[in-house]
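User: I'm curious whether this sequence folds into something compact or stays loose and floppy. Could you predict its structure so I can see for myself?
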Amino acid sequence: QVQLVESGGGLVQPGGSLRLSCAASGSIFSFYAMGWYRQAPGKQRELVARISRADITNYTESVKGRFTISRDNAKNTVYLQMNSLKPEDTAVYYCNRFPSGVWAWGQGTQVTVSS
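Assistant: Here's the prediction. I'll summarize afterward.
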């Protein structure tokens, strides 16, 4: 079973930046499309960004132009660079395969955007 470990979250002021990382165990990482998801309090988990095996990226409308997803297959790691953060970006962020539902979720990393 693949294990996912997210890191890089924290408290940041509106307009600030954070870079999230997700390390995946196992050597099959490069075979799959990956996604970053988030879950805000009282809301369902949503897909924020995804990256294909060929590094084609897609973003939910609310983060387009602000977030960038990337991957390093040699390191089994996927990243999410988040710029111009807004209070509504506050959530626990998770990575997983896209589509999800096969691998177990990691513990996530909390992102709080507040002044």
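Summary: The mean pLDDT is 95. The chain has no helices and ten strands.
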